[in-house]
Every structure is written in structure tokens, then in C-alpha cells.
Here is the input.
Amino acid sequence: MELLFPVLVLAISVLAIAGFWKVLAKAGQPGWAAIVPIYNVYALLQVAGRPGWWLLLMLIPIVNVVVAFMVSFDVARRFGKDSGFGIGLALLGVVFYPILGFGDATYKAGRRG
Here is the structure.
């Protein structure tokens, strides 16, 4: 019984990483970027259609929260989802990235705004 919680956390983590990997791969980014710290944020910015220098904005407290929501909205739009799905990506990425990655959503480059 004491092994149940760590195994559950590991399973959820693997599912979240696999979902993020699939999202990046669908968008033409290397899937392995999902497991590389800092580069995964850069790759997500590319998927969202935002410039790479926004990575610096992610280092500024409070600003990073606003930028994360903007990027989540842009990623959702690029996959043909609405802003409600973008909120889900920002707040519950563990659930929404696998939905996006393993679902039938397709990436549409050039659709921001």
C-alpha cells in the first residue's frame, strides 16, 4: 500500500511527459525537447508562434504567469481549440497536454490571434 502513491505519481508524470512530447511532435518540434529543462519552454514558445526571447520573460516573477497564460492560449488556438482549452493548458497541463497530444487535434502554423 505504501508503494501505491509513488507508482501513481510516476504513472501520471509519464502520461504528462508523453502528452507534451506528442504535442511538440505534432507541431514539428523535436519530441525529446519535452524532457529537456528550459529548452522545452523554448520549443513551446515556437509552437505558440512567440519569439524565443520570451524565454527571458518566463524568468520574471508575476510576468511569467501572464506569459504562460498567453502561450497556453496561443498553443490552444494553433491546435484549433478555444480559449477555455487554453485555460486548461495553463492550469491543468497534466490533463490537457495528453488530451491535445493523443487526440485528433492538428497543428495549424501561422494561426495566432
In short: The mean pLDDT is 94. Helices lie at 4-26, 39-48, 54-57, 63-78, 83-91, 93-102. The chain has six helices and no strands. The chain has one domain: 4-102.
